[in-house]
Amino acid sequence: xxxxxxxxxxxxxxxxxxxxxxxxxxxxxxxxxxxxxxxxxxxxxxxxxxxxxxxxxxxxxxxxxxxxxxxxxxxxxxxxxxxxxxxxxxxxxxxxxxxxxxxxxxxxxxxxxxxxxxxxxxxxxxxxxxxxxxxxxxxxxxxxxxxxxxxxxxxxxxxxxxxxxxxxxxxxxxxxxxxxxxxxxxxxxxxxxxxxxxxxxxxxxxxxxxxxxxxxxxxxxxxxxxxxxxxxxxxxxxxxxxxxxxxxxxxxxxxxxxxxxxxxxxxxxxxxxxxxxxxxxxxxxxxxxxxxxxxxxxxxxxxxxxxxxxxxxxxxxxxxxxxxxxxxxxxxxxxxxxxxxxxxxxxxxxxxxxxxxxxxxxxxxxxxxxxxxxxxxxxxxxxxxxxxxxxxxxxxxxxxxxxxxxxxxxxxxxxxxxxxxxxxxxxxxxxxxxxxxxxxx
Length: 441
Ligand SMILES: Nc1ncnc2c1ncn2[C@@H]1O[C@H](COP(=O)(O)OP(=O)(O)OP(=O)(O)O)[C@@H](O)[C@H]1O
Ligand SMILES: O=P(O)(O)OC[C@H]1O[C@](O)(CO)[C@@H](O)[C@@H]1O
Ligand SMILES: [Mg+2]
Prior knowledge:
By secondary structure, the protein is of the alpha/beta class. It is built from 14 helices and 17 strands. Helix content is about 35%, strand content about 15%.
């Protein structure tokens, strides 16, 4: 996708006139290899030929605004009320982000009040006007030790006007939306209404996705925890299949449209023979189809391990077009389908398989963040707070090539991050599994 510098400009509510609590600390800071000053920018691309292809001076190639504290801020902290909402599916680290935001706003900016809206955007609907909770330091003290979100979450559409009314009733000046692509679309609808009503409310997003399917972010928070947890299940079916005469282990992992968890977890264990992801179609039948390849592998090695992302092979299943409350496609169960088809095939050819099938999806996304993700979450939380207090709106904070930056909200929903079948990650998977680039197609 080709971007121009102007596509990457983030919106501000207005001039920053209040001293930031970080003003003194920032007074001598300049850009260094370890710090990007607030008036510097971070390049989108990092490859020489791509940078040259823009054909413009370096300060005009696409770049992001650096995240971080500003010397001057837009909101007067003493008069500022902040809201937080978590939406969509669970993801490790949600509580860390909530806690990080509350700590930063309380201990440094000393804002007037922080409220949490319960159960996602539902908590901003008209009939949920009492479902706010005060987020104090006490309220968030140990929440990072638990998975899930203390605020609850939900799917399903809400009326954006009602949501803006709720912000006004609770006198919210800044709203943090922690959620995935759908949540960011919801947040943009909210911003439209805020603009139409000429309100002075900042809406800042912290992108969340267990599937790692949001663009302009190195890896989304919670992703590392998720694939690390997934490795336990792959290791289990590996051991089970090893102990059986004709052992087949199958693990289905989350990944609606993007197979990152499957790829990373499989590479981590490095014992999978087939990794099946939505980005790479495969066929079952024929001499080079999956069934024949599984049979051959079993005959040669006595054991097969398959890691399948939930969105893989959907074209092989009958789909009734059902949607969830947010309008996302309800997927067919590729894991159970493969388990049945592989069992039938191997039984037919007399191999009497022992098939172990695990679907640990919710067991993976509901855990607390690991130490790496906790660090990542707290740093995203800090970046989000600094962005909002400086008046940024319709903006999300992400880490891109190790730098924390601001991205216009529309860009994060513009396309999906997916495993590139021509890229080096998939190449590593092919190297590790020994599976062919395509089969049965
Ligand atoms: N196009 C849209 N316009 C307005 N609101 C939306 C839109 N898509 C989703 N939303 C709202 O955003 C919230 C979360 O959306 P969704 O359930 O799709 O999860 P998500 O944020 O994409 O997270 P994930 O995919 O990681 O579970 C829901 O309340 C949903 O109604
Ligand atoms: O069952 P739920 O809660 O709708 O969520 C399932 C989906 O949410 C995700 O975790 C995030 O989009 C997907 O991987 C999965 O398909
Ligand atoms: Mg989504």
